[in-house]
Amino acid sequence: MKSYKIKDVWMALELAKKVFVYEFIAVIAVIYLFGSRMSDILIYALFGAALFGALILHTIIVYVVNSSYEINEEHFTFPRSDIENSIFAIILLIPYWNLARKMRVRTDEIENLYIDSHKRAPFSISKGKKQKAITYYGINVTGSFGSAHLIFKSRQKRDETRNAIAQCVRKATGARVDKKVAEFS
Questions:
Q1: Cβ partners under 8 Å of residue 148, min gap 6
Q2: Separation between Cα atoms, residue 11 and residue 9, nearest integer Å
Q3: pTM here?
Q4: Which of 79, 93, 150, 162 has fewest C-beta within 10 Å?
């Protein structure tokens, strides 16, 4: 049984960087708010160290989880990309916590693969400077399990993953799932 492990280090680094920045801001805010109430400097220092340790650990977990896709004839394991559709899930930040989780789907549950790409303007504080939009490449994987939208920073990694999924599904079920939809850019 052939197994594929595809790494997308750049996308994982980008997600880990975003997690680190947002959590760093939250940690500083928590230390500021609760630290002013602490009278003992040792407790204050331990509290801050524990929060920063948790921040580093969560950033590392997000990087490791989002850096690889594993595909074989039995299953496909990928970073969770659920879009929540309940207010309860949004309040609990489920999409954020799913950054540190993987999802495993049996290959016989995959019915279709579609590709797409979209451009995002980079965040810029300076005005008047023209910046090139960043293109992200995606695969939409659909089937009896539901659907997943996988995002890549490079077309090559997207195509490697798409081809590996299509080959494994074809070997497992005989079905051709790759729809080869042209990109709209």
A1: 78, 80, 81, 82, 103, 105, 140, 141
A2: 6
A3: 0.76
A4: 93
Secondary structure in 3-state letters for 136-147: EEEEEEEECCEE
- What is the C-alpha to C-alpha distance for residues 149 and 116, in angstroms, rounded to an integer? 10
Residues 6+ apart with CB under 8 A from 72: 1, 2, 3, 4, 107, 168
Report the Cα–Cα distance between both ends of the chain, in Å, rounded: 37
Amino acid 135 reads T
Q: What SS3 state is found at 180? A: coil
Helices (H) and strands (E) in the chain, counts: 5, 7
Which structure tokens are listed for 139? 């695969």
Residue pLDDT, tens place only, 26-37: 888 877 777 666
In angstroms, the CA 174 to CA 43 distance is 62
pLDDT in tens, 112-121: 898 887 767 5
159, 117 contact by CB (below 8 A): no
